[in-house]
């Protein structure tokens, strides 16, 4: 039994080593792929439930908003899509509620209509935050 345990542990170690080497060798491809996927899925926000939930989770957990494209700030990608509303808002919402800073736990958020205010809306790009997270973990 001890020999079986050692063999299984050895195989797990080898798999982890191979995974680390492959991750290092293909890190640029992973970076490019992540960027392309984030750009393509942000256009599906509010049209696909899984994508919407994923973006909301990323934006809340990483304290960011959208993804920068062609020099525009992250949250501006939502403004360019000319959507009438985000998440059943008033029709004037320019960014999703998951982009809002909420220091007091207040559910009445008006920041979705004023995305340029850094006190109310996360200004950071989600791609940069996720890239740093993946890089350091």
TrEMBL record:
Gene3D superfamilies: Tetraspanin
InterPro entries for the chain: Tetraspanin/Peripherin, Tetraspanin_EC2_sf
Skewed-composition ranges (Basic and acidic residues): 91-100
Transmembrane segments: 6-26
Segments of skewed composition (Polar residues): 104-113
GO cellular component, one term: plasma membrane
Key words of the record: Membrane, Transmembrane, Transmembrane helix
Region (Disordered): 83-113
Topology term for the membrane: Multi-pass membrane protein
Record localization: Membrane
Organism superkingdom: Eukaryota
Statement: the UniProt record of this protein carries the keyword Transmembrane: yes
Stated name of the protein: Tetraspanin
